[in-house]
Specification:
Elements lengths: L2 E4 L2 E4 L4 E7 L3 H4 L2 E6 L6 E6 L5 E3 L7 E6 L4 E6 L8 E9 L1 E4 L3 E6 L1
Parallel strand pairs: 2-11
Antiparallel strand pairs: 1-3, 3-8, 4-5, 4-9, 5-6, 7-8, 9-10, 9-11
């Protein structure tokens, strides 16, 4: 299982970014996929997830601003991030669990005030 995250960058507060997670095989259609983030000096935290059936959930801190989606044909999961805030600055990781936890390499998101 390989997960390749991309799409991070530097953006001003109020801006938008779309993160992508390209997965090997047909993982995105068969397993739940998640996005996590980790800010410096903090623990990695769950941000948003999408089940195999397409149900989504996210944490209160991003509710109404972030949207997780997937393209099964392209084996890609996305995280659309709007109205970004400086506190969203983190390294973002995509994740799935297939007997074991698999993580992408992370993509840096920096939001300037």
């Amino acid at each position: 299982v390989q997960l390749q995250a991309s799409g991070g960058g530097l953006v001003q507060a109020g801006g938008s970014l779309r993160l992508s997670c390209a997965a090997s095989g047909s993982i995105t259609s068969s397993y739940a996929m998640d996005w996590y983030r980790q800010a410096p000096g903090k623990q990695r935290e769950f941000v948003a997830g999408i089940t195999r059936g397409g149900n989504t959930n996210d944490v209160d801190a991003v509710k109404g601003r972030f949207t997780i989606s997937r393209d099964n044909a392209g084996n890609t999961v996305y995280l659309q991030m709007n109205s970004l805030k400086p506190e969203d600055t983190s390294v973002y990781y995509c994740h799935t669990r297939i007997l074991y936890d698999f993580w992408g390499q992370g993509t840096q998101v920096t939001v300037s005030s």
